[in-house]
Design the sequence.
């Protein structure tokens, strides 16, 4: 088990926002790696992850708020925030 996840699961106190994000990030990374190891392509894993997240956000915040969030994401993606850093040769 990854260190932050193990620590988060052992702690009896509520987790801070940062601890929640770190534990969740590690859980997602573990899931992605396990799915990839089973031969599921990353684009399939990504599409399903986005779809699942959108269903949850719509259920919690409604379609209008979710649509605004997605529109903000469009602008963030276009600005390059999600681009992978490239190595200088």
Sequence:
């Amino acid at each position: 088990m990854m260190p932050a996840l193990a620590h988060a699961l052992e702690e009896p106190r509520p987790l801070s926002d940062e601890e929640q994000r770190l534990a969740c990030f590690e859980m997602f990374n573990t899931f992605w790696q396990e799915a990839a190891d089973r031969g599921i392509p990353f684009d399939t894993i990504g599409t399903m992850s986005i779809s699942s997240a959108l269903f949850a956000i719509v259920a919690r915040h409604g379609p209008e708020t979710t649509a605004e969030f997605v529109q903000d994401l469009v602008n963030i993606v276009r600005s390059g925030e999600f681009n992978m850093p490239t190595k200088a040769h």
